[in-house]
């Protein structure tokens, strides 16, 4: 009786072995050097995901109002 290996959980190895330690370190250095840019990119991504996948009508209406107010504030400058 051959013992079966437990089923692997998580990302397939073909996706995890491709990134080298050097690349991981380079990514880490970039994120440290560009904290504001990274934070802004994350906020933008999360906002788009929320709007396109999770927001209901009331939330979308509120977002539109906030966006219009922000546009007015930016145009006044």
UniProtKB/TrEMBL annotation:
Region (Disordered): 1-44
Record field: compositional bias (Basic and acidic residues): 26-35
Name the record gives this protein: Uncharacterized protein
Source species: Weissella muntiaci
């Amino acid at each position: 009786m051959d013992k079966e290996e437990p089923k692997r959980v998580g990302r397939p190895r073909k996706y995890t072995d491709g990134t080298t330690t050097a690349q991981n370190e380079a990514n880490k250095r970039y994120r440290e050097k560009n904290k504001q840019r990274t934070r802004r990119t994350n906020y933008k991504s999360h906002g788009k995901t929320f709007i396109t996948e999770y927001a209901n009508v009331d939330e979308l209406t509120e977002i539109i109002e906030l966006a219009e107010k922000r546009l007015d504030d930016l145009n006044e400058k």
